[in-house]
Fold:
Amino acid sequence: MTRHPNFSAGPAKLPDEVLQQAQLELMDFAGTGMSIMEVSHRSAGFLEVADQAVSDFRSLMAIPDNYSVLYMQGGATHQFSCVPWNLLGASKKADYIDTGIWSQKAIKEARRIEGGDIHVAASVNESGLLRVPGNSDLLIRADSAYLHYTPNETISGLEFNYIPDTDGVPLVADMSSSILSRGVDVSKFGIIYAGAQKNIGPAGITWVIIRNDLLNQAVTRIPALMNYKNILSQDSMLNTPPTYALYLCGLVFKWLKKRGGVEAIEKVNRQKSELIYGVIDQNDFYANAIEPSDRSKMNVTFSLADQSLESKFIEESEKLGLYNLKGHRAVGGIRASIYNASSLESVQALSTFMNDFAKKYG
Amino acid sequence: MTRHPNFSAGPAKLPDEVLQQAQLELMDFAGTGMSIMEVSHRSAGFLEVADQAVSDFRSLMAIPDNYSVLYMQGGATHQFSCVPWNLLGASKKADYIDTGIWSQKAIKEARRIEGGDIHVAASVNESGLLRVPGNSDLLIRADSAYLHYTPNETISGLEFNYIPDTDGVPLVADMSSSILSRGVDVSKFGIIYAGAQKNIGPAGITWVIIRNDLLNQAVTRIPALMNYKNILSQDSMLNTPPTYALYLCGLVFKWLKKRGGVEAIEKVNRQKSELIYGVIDQNDFYANAIEPSDRSKMNVTFSLADQSLESKFIEESEKLGLYNLKGHRAVGGIRASIYNASSLESVQALSTFMNDFAKKYG
Structure:
């Protein structure tokens, strides 16, 4: 069996060691004669797995004590609804930074709230060079319930290189594609949420970090499975959680701790992205229109000067076992998603291929 | 490795053959060099898996063409909210049959709807003999948007032996614990939904069957991931679905088809439940207070005449490798959940143990 380099944007590559362990114990977890996916979420064996996962996540992210951690279902899209439903009970005002497709989806959901006053604090400049709005460009209303932003836009490959200073307005971040890839000072946030399928585990589980003082401002009549406080009161087991997905997240957390945690992986991630951006910038053959400081370290997007060569690029990369490099259907081009589980070696193989391809057709 | 009989109420036992195949291809799906959980939900390889699962589900349930099939996240609890949000846009009236804890949870969620008029059509008799209300006992309002019921209550072990005739009011059923265990005439229903973790697959995916004419009566401002019509318009991929859970459901559907489908498994399920109820009724040592015709074929509950022996019953059953027989924490006693994946042999082992235990301590 050859395991191929896989640059999928999500669901994405998982660490080989994690899948190996999952495979080994798939039919018999810890000598129980049962799969971990076949037992009750309230069984002692499973609760141990769940508690350890939460505790490892807290430690990896260095989450302060005044924050709670929840795991939920429905991905970031569900959070697009949950955030306004949980926070707009009193002030109906919220501000959003629009940096692309994912931000826009979040804004659209917030606008469904009855009586909501949803304001765009800043938009990415869609013409010419793409860049993240600066802190001073953000129009944040002092009485807003929160400011929402998307630190990393997976489709365009745009990433914030700073954490917005909101002057006290709670900051809410969709970290689906960057969580655990770099150090983050959680205390600067009100809520952080992330679908697991990029840096944490399989699709079907979402992690939410919430500052405890924000748990008391939900819109009345909020559905049970959107209510953070309600879910927290049952330790994320208000209903049956996605147990196997949670178990896999736990394995990924252990793997990351063993590799030295977020600090260590951040260094590798920087090397990986610099390697590919280096190839792009050294060849007129490739182009990336994003301000260098705002380029994503997780999703490297680029186009070919001669667009007609893109399908050949995909074809030849796959021949070498480099998979899932096609850009998102909304924007086209090429995208290499290089989350935590993508090894430096696989990224080196990609950069070699890119150089060779440019020589061959450039 | 010994695989143990596992009577867990959910997440529950999965067929050995399914787990074997999942284990075999966990790191390398169909020679791709990637796990099926590592690829995009929009990749050709995954779409084939998804489409086949939906098609097999349709065929197993004999779903008529005027019904749509969706897979979602959030389990039955999410559906408790989705059903009223999707159906109460026009008439705010809905009727619910209350047969126990799960029905009551559904009612509670429906009552969160702004301006909703939620009425209990009938309640189970909680005193003395437990039985399902008869069709003539149901107070269904002719202008109700729907009648909701729970064909099988997993906690008490109470099951409807008939499908309510509602005289045209759409019938909505939470079939989480009985779906695919017996033949069902889908055309008698407006909506059928089921969390997967009992008869279909792992926790984290929910199947919904909806009659197409019911797709146009949602409450305004319904959150995106609650909106059936919205989700259907994207073939259940409005956002990233729980891909691995979906793949496992597909394997279970194939397994069930190979075993002869619903008709064949229904016969085995009848044998299994008759075997245990036979032991209960033949021994004064055990008791089940449910009207025999209304006893669940999936969740056999019973108590011991001498309640102080219950912990010994659990202890000795586990010594024999018969796991997860403890009743739900809300009601106590013993519960053997014998879903499709529980073999006749494992149920025979349980009945032998029950007889031996009764002889030893009776």
Observations:
- The two ends of chain A are 34 Å apart (CA to CA).
- The mean pLDDT of chain A is 96.
- Chain A touches chain B through 70 residues (CB under 8 Å).
- Residues 261-282 of chain A form the longest helix (22 residues).
